[in-house]
Fold this sequence. Notes:
Blueprint (H helix, E strand, L loop, with lengths): L8 H21 L31 E18 L9 E17 L8 E3 L5 E6 L3 E2 L3 E2 L5 E7 L1 H9 L7 H17 L2 H19 L4 E6 L4
Parallel strand pairs: 4-8
Antiparallel strand pairs: 1-2, 2-5, 2-6, 2-7, 3-4
Amino acid sequence: xxxxxxxxxxxxxxxxxxxxxxxxxxxxxxxxxxxxxxxxxxxxxxxxxxxxxxxxxxxxxxxxxxxxxxxxxxxxxxxxxxxxxxxxxxxxxxxxxxxxxxxxxxxxxxxxxxxxxxxxxxxxxxxxxxxxxxxxxxxxxxxxxxxxxxxxxxxxxxxxxxxxxxxxxxxxxxxxxxxxxxxxxxxxxxxxxxxxxxxxxxxxxxxxxxxxxxxxx
Length: 217
């Protein structure tokens, strides 16, 4: 029967040092020791290349109103025949962003603007206000909690997944758009556009100004 040789003193010292560093690093990552990682002189360098112009687009719409919205996303992914502790995920995400409402002025034709002979009365017919694509604000959007099964956590160790939050962000954008449609944002945009045009035309000498939308009589 052979006896195992005891570790040398320097081996035990290195093991204790490695365990201590790992423990301190874990506490710092959990924000229990804020500022401790600065001991290693960690820094961030921006090595991004210059922006590339891909296209130019003329804008011909009047942005008449902007709505600020916030939504809490609770997204859960389950796997058939496997418990959530093994395979599955649940994410709580706060999505905040803006939605613009605009009136398109680029498609106006000659008949859409009518002026009387004395140039004292003007009638303008415009399309109804529309909603732009929601814009998610990364500075105000964040994950509250993430719960992942064992297989999901192991998978994250062996692969880099830059799109891990892409699905929940897309869902947040979808719900922000729905919230904007359920609000009175387009009505506010049409009122603001009417006020703008009335003020502009009256400053040009028109005493009567009528702004209509869609098929309004």
